[in-house]
Specification:
Largest sheet: 5 strands, mixed
Order of helices and strands: HHHEEHEHHEHHHHHHHEEEEHHEEEE
Radius of gyration: 21 Å
Strand order of the largest sheet: 1-2-8-5-3
Strand content: 5-15%
Distance between the termini: 23 Å
CATH class: Mainly Alpha
CATH architecture: Orthogonal Bundle
CATH topology: Cytochrome p450
CATH superfamily: Cytochrome P450
Number of strands: 12
Number of helices: 15
Number of domains: 1
Length: 418
C-alpha cells in the first residue's frame, strides 16, 4: 500500500471511532463531508447493522428515512405503487430546485419519455459505437506521458466521457468541454466549490439551456440523426415537451452520460491501486476484465443514493412511513451489505455474484446507459493493459463534495509503459 493509500486507510480507521461513538439518531448519511473525505463506510455500516430503516428527524437536508440494506433497497425501488419518483429522486432543499425529467416521473409518462431516447444505447447503436470508442481510447492512452505525473481524472476519465457525450448529442466537438462543465454545475451544491453561489449555478444552467434550445430549433428542421436530440424530436410524445421537461431531461442525459462512467473509470484505477493483489491478477490474465468492470462499478457506486416519496402510509419492516415522507435508498450502502457481498469493502475479481450490484439502480429506473458505461470501462482496461506495465497513484486523491455523485477531481498518477 503506497503512502497516500495508507493515509486514506488511517483516516478511515480514525473516523470509525467517531462513527461508533455517536448516538444512532445523530448519524446523518446526507453529510457531504463523509463522501468528500471517503469516511462514509462506518456510518452506513452502523445503520445497516443497528437501524436499517432509520428516520433522520434533524438532518442537514430535512427529515427523511434511510434504507441501507440491499434487500430493502430492492423492495423500495420496485414498489411504485407506494413509493413515487415524483417530484424528485434527490434531496430538495434550499440550495437548489428539482427539474422535471423522466427519471423523476412515474409510469406511464416515465416509460414513454425513456423509450424515446433508449435506442441511442441499444445493441445496434452500441455495436456501431465500439470501434469509435476504441479509437479514441487508444489515442488518449498513447498521448499520456511516460514516467511523468499527470491528473488521471482530467487526461483519461473526463476526456473520454466528454468525447462520448458529444457524440451522443452530436454536439460541436471543439466545444465539448462545455458539457463537462454543465454536468459538474448541474450536480453542484452551494459548498462544493464548483460554483460561487446558487445564483451563479442557475446562470450557467441558463446558458446550457439556451445553447441546446438553439440546437433543438436547428435540428427540428430535419431530425434524421441518431443523436439524443433528434430522437426526442422524432418521437410524438416528446417532440412538444414543455420547456421544463426538455431542460430536465437534458440535464439528466448530460449527467447520466458523463458523471457515472467518468467516476467509474477513476474509481477503477483507485481500487486497483488499493488492492494490488487484484491488479497483479488482472495483469496476468486480461480475460478478468469482464469481471473487473461490474466489480469496479459496485465498489465505486458513482450514484450514491436515490430518493422516493411515500404515496400513502406504509408499514415497512415494522416502521410507520407516513404519506409524503422522503425515503432514501443508499445504493452505496446496499453495495457494501455483508449479507450479500463477502468482504464488501474490497475489490474481488472472483466474487460469485459479481453482477448483483445496485449501482445502476433496480427496476424501471435502472440506468438506461448501463451497457454503454460497461463497454467504455472494458475498452479502457483492454487498451491500457496492452500498453502499460504499471499505473501508480503518486499523490493525494481529491474527491468532490457531494452526497449524490461519488466522484473525483484529481488522481495524480505515473504510468510505466511496456
Amino acid at each position: 500500500m503506497n503512502t497516500f493509500a495508507q493515509q486514506d486507510f488511517d483516516q478511515l480507521e480514525a473516523e470509525r471511532d467517531l462513527a461508533y461513538s455517536l448516538n444512532i439518531e445523530d448519524i446523518d448519511p446526507s453529510d457531504r463531508r463523509l463522501y468528500q473525505e471517503n469516511v462514509f463506510p462506518p456510518y452506513l455500516e452502523r445503520l445497516r447493522n443497528e437501524s436499517p430503516v432509520n428516520y433522520h428527524s434533524h438532518s442537514r437536508v430535512g427529515p427523511f428515512w434511510s434504507i441501507t440494506r440491499y434487500e430493502d433497497i430492492r423492495k423500495i425501488d420496485i414498489n411504485h405503487q407506494q413509493f413515487s419518483s415524483e417530484p424528485s429522486i434527490t434531496f430538495v432543499d434550499s440550495e437548489g430546485s428539482t427539474t422535471n425529467n423522466f427519471i423523476s416521473m412515474d409510469q406511464p409518462k416515465h416509460d414513454v419519455q425513456r423509450k424515446a431516447v433508449a435506442p441511442v444505447t441499444g445493441p445496434r447503436n452500441l455495436a456501431g459505437l465500439e470501434p469509435l470508442i476504441r479509437e479514441r481510447v487508444i489515442k488518449i492512452i498513447e498521448e499520456l506521458p511516460d514516467n511523468q505525473e499527470f491528473n488521471w481524472v482530467e487526461r483519461v476519465s473526463v476526456e473520454l466521457t466528454t468525447q462520448m457525450l458529444a457524440t451522443l448529442f452530436d454536439f460541436p466537438f471543439e466545444e465539448r468541454s462545455k458539457l463537462t462543465r454543465w454536468s459538474d454545475v448541474a450536480t453542484a451544491s452551494a459548498d462544493s466549490g464548483v460554483v460561487e453561489s446558487p445564483k451563479a449555478r442557475l446562470r450557467e444552467l441558463d446558458e446550457c439551456f439556451a445553447y441546446f434550445r438553439n440546437i433543438w430549433n436547428e435540428r427540428a428542421k430535419n431530425p434524421v440523426g441518431n443523436d439524443l436530440i433528434s430522437l426526442l424530436l422524432r418521437n410524438d410524445d416528446t417532440r412538444n415537451m414543455p420547456d421544463e421537461e426538455f431542460y430536465g431531461n437534458l440535464l439528466l442525459l448530460i449527467v447520466g452520460g458523463n458523471d457515472t462512467t467518468r467516476n467509474s473509470i477513476s474509481g477503477g484505477l483507485l481500487a486497483l491501486n488499493l488492492f494490488q493483489d487484484q491488479f497483479a491478477r488482472l495483469k496476468e490474465d486480461h480475460t478478468l476484465i469482464e469481471r473487473l468492470v461490474p466489480e469496479v462499478i459496485r465498489w465505486q457506486t458513482p450514484v450514491i443514493y436515490q430518493r422516493r416519496t411515500a404515496l400513502e402510509d406504509v408499514d415497512f419492516k415494522g416502521h410507520k412511513i407516513r404519506q409524503g415522507d422522503r425515503v432514501v435508498m443508499w445504493y452505496i450502502s446496499g453495495n457494501r451489505d455483508a449479507e450479500i457481498f463477502d468482504h464488501a469493502q474490497a475489490l474481488k475479481l472472483d466474487r460469485h455474484n459479481i453482477r448483483a450490484h445496485l449501482a445502476f439502480g433496480f427496476g424501471i429506473h435502472r440506468c438506461m446507459g448501463n451497457r454503454l458505461a460497461e463497454m467504455q470501462l472494458r475498452i479502457v482496461w483492454e487498451e491500457l493493459l496492452k500498453r502499460m506495465d504499471d499505473i501508480e497513484i503518486s499523490g493525494r486523491v481529491i474527491r468532490n463534495r457531494s452526497n449524490l455523485i461519488r466522484g473525483y477531481n484529481e488522481i495524480p498518477v505515473v504510468v510505466k509503459r511496456k
